[in-house]
Amino acid sequence: MKKILLTVSILLSGLLIMKCTTSGTAQDEPATDQPQESLVQGASAHWISPDRVLWFAERDAARFELRYSEAADIEITAAGVSGGEALALTPNADLNSAQAETWPHIADWPAFSLTTDRDLAQQAIRGPVFAIAYDAQDNVIQATRVQVPGLIDAFFRFDGTLGPVYEGDEIVLNVWAPTAQALELVLYNDSKTESSTVSGAYDRETGVWTFTGPAADWDRKFYRFAIRVWHPENGEINEYEVTDPYSVSLSTDSYFSQFADLTGDERLKPEGWDDIRKVQPRPVDITLYEAHVRDFSIFDQSVPELHRGTFMAFTHNGIDGRELSNGMAHLIALQQAGLTHLHLLPVNDITTVIENRDLRIDLDQPYSRLCEQMPDADSLKPYCERFGDTPIYEAFQTLAAEDPANTSIQLPYSIRGRYHSLARMDGFNWGYDPFHFNAIEGSYATDPNGVARIVEFREMVKALHEIGLKLVVDVVYNHTSAHGLERRSVLDRVVPGYYQRYDVVSGEIETSTCCPNTAAEHYMMERLLIDSVLFWAKHYKVDSFRFDLMGHHPRAVMERLMDALAELTLEEHGVDGANIYVYGEGWNFGEVADNRIFFQATQFNMNGTGIGNFNDRKRDGIRGRNFTDSGRFQGFTSGQFLFPNEDAGSDQDQQLSDLLFQADQIRVGMAGNLRSYPYINRTGERVTGITDWIGFTDLPQETVNYIDKHDNETLWDNTQTKLPHDMSMDDRVRVHMLSLAFINYGQGVPFHQMGSDILRSKSLDRNSFDSGDWFNEVDFTMQTHNWGRGLPPSWDNERNWDRQREFLTNPLIQVEEHHMRLAHDIFRDQLRVRYSSPLFRLATAEEVNTRVRFHNTGPDQQPGIIAMTISDGRCAGAALDPNYDGILVIFNAHNEAQTFETGLSGLRLHDLLVSGADRVARTAEISGEGTVSLPPLTAAVFVKPQGRNQGDFVCNP
User: Fold this and answer.
1) Out of 73, 548, 664, 708, which one is annotated catalytic?
2) 276 and 537 in contact (C-beta within 8 Å)?
């Protein structure tokens, strides 16, 4: 989950006075009148279908009604009810099975029956609707606002194309806005100083407004919609302009939508774009590398200055006479070792980065810019006097050299309140704050005003394709960055109260994801999600999608998405949609937790879909849980029981118990995290993977095995908090690489954060979403490293500063270039080993359950040793590998050498390790009888050549 610090509009709840005119201002009252207090509380009634309303109404009421008004003239006070039209509610109704299934979280609420047709529904949804209970004297005893998404879904679904479409000589623009009382298209000139208004046609069957105009005149024009609509935030009818929810191009900082022909306009396509055909690998053949567009190149001096931090940085790939940048050389080296997919954090339009570079403060600007921006920030004044016009980056370098755990570097990021902090004013943000879902983020383009972002994104896709890398985009459909009437709210301004998820009683916006949640359980929000993914696949040839907080969506929506993708073909769309890989964060929390509102797309619900889920169980077993959450609690590779740190305590029995449980987590994870995988656990029982809620997949491709990503501390940072203070640097690097080996040598889909292969640090920042370029820097030349760059920003770290200072000032932790180069070379060797045999990439549960076997299990296992065999012998069935009868992968998490009896004969160390970068691993040996001698903190791979001794390699019994 991402924390995004935004100023968002707050939904009014509690007592509301609903008396408005079409201009959105309160009606004038005689001066002698005393205003009456509204009796409306919350929004606890739900019009779920044409014939049913759910509401916990007063049981003793004499009668019940709905009251609606397109004029928004309803008053509900102790003096009585006035305005609007009444519709009788009959209590004690039942729900049919479909209704109960659609609304499980409120299906046990009292149900009321009523009769509704389309015309009545159209009137009702265009203004406020209230449920009112009266006593026998016709006094109001209860009143609440009615939430109407169910009614909208019943009458106003639309399955056609939304947004701008070029049809011959015309542009057809559809916008779904059934609650709008009026909606017009406003066209702007290039400077946005002049406008003209175009009327359209409204379809009462679908709720769609359609505008048609000549492509020759409209193409590349900027536009918005002028809308008149009632909004629950202020209880008034409002008039404003809003951008298109289906925008494909935008002006700088997203003030205006823009028409652009992504299909027919050759000016928007790199040379050869239409000829690109994206053939997809099997999901189990994928390895993922997660990057951020700005991180990748913002400090890369081998990239032209204008291209740094943009999509164009990826085009410097050394092909067709183009120069080769340091970053692209790094990606090419990884691709040649086996890397298949580059995962980019969100690239769609976001709210928190100022696209107009003239208004930003970045690290190449003088420190005095900070002082000008925050003149009353007393804490900055000493640094303003000291650094003056020194570039901010150089000032930070000076401060870090003086004290690697200072608080002065983070200060400009952490200042809040009325100041515009550096975090708000720089060009950095992770981007989990979506604005327009189908438009590309302008801050990653050389020109944010208009179509350059389209061309340059496609140039990036083409350049990655040229070096053999597929593209993953991170998509965030679970929330928006704003709601209500705020400018950055698009969906909730076009169809108020529909796209977002609101509390069922208070009507307040749900924000469990960090921000205003969306509601994909509503039909048109599901449509937007699916339409958007298809848009990126078709128009930008995206190969894979990673879903942020996927557990906040229904499983059924994700399955329908997969069905829709499967209809994309290489012949028609240039994309093999049936094999596009989809994965996400299946965390179970918030208002949707435990399938309360729908059957969620969470880890333990998605088995059998082919959709991947991040495997935090294997992660926690390897590295230990996050330092922020569990302190110095160690993982399997970071010393649990084997070399306890100073905070471990003296209970060795508990430490051993924790280590053995971590080993079980790792074993199941190495076996594709299969629910069905049979093995002997730490207590000696023969169990399956789902035991202890470890395994959650039915297919190996459904586990995304990772040990770090953008969230939480990096692997390097987290590990340093767990290791004993006196551990040497060489051993610290070995622990890091041993941890990564568990990811690269396991069944499933490996996932790595960019830079983990070069010991990436964020100076212990656990949530660097807005921490700027300084804390997020990656240096592919390996001349600099981010460890000890100052204490990280206060918002998510301050409570840990004392402990963080302890680690950052440890004189034994000094990351040098040779450490990073060694790590990078070992990482590439691990990838080469993985791709040297299909046995590391088994595709089915049957293959894994038969071929993958763990030795050294049960209560008497040798602690710290995990030994896994993968068989291609006769017992496994048809041969998959023409070179090997089987493979032994063995891990030693001890900081001392170990021997282990495998009982296997005829094996030898893998050739790639014999000649590999890890000189220590080269000394790993196995005797003819199967005794392995393993150096400390080492992963080794031994292979049995095909057909030796006509024997049979072991299978899982």
Assistant:
1) 548
2) no
